[in-house]
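User: Some background: our group keeps a shared notebook of sequences we're curious about, and every so often someone picks one and asks for a predicted structure to add to the entry. Today it's my turn. The entry only has the sequence so far, pasted here. Could you supply the structure so I can complete it?
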Amino acid sequence: MATQIFLNLAVNDLNRSIAFFTKLGYSFNPKFTDEKATCMIISDNIFVMLLTRPFFQTFTNKEIIDAHKAVECSIALSAESREVVNEMVAKAEAAGATIPNPATDYGFMYQHSFEDLDGHHWEIVWMDPNSSPEHI
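Assistant: Of course. Here's the predicted structure to add to the notebook entry:
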């Protein structure tokens, strides 16, 4: 069995976050959804648990940052083409996301990013399978 990834993110308004990510084309597992959390399906082995801030706090003694003010991580997801990168970022912007930077083209890799409603930073990336970076 392949390793599964469950990324946990604190959100201010669970229903608003579900509506936002639904507009981006994601679905949710109803078995792991209630008023405190939901399980967003990225792929067969990648999931994002959207947890209300009070519920998220029950898993840690550390302060939960405000992702609008500080970067906790950058979530990078691959895309099938440059066009899909642009389509996903456009969907996110139309759904209320902030676009912090213009797209970047490295030749072998094309990326664009958005910040979701809670300020979490998402990168959508396409890499040319027939190229490799000249400088890493």
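Suggested note for the entry: The mean pLDDT is 94. Residues 71 and 121 are 7 Å apart (CA to CA).
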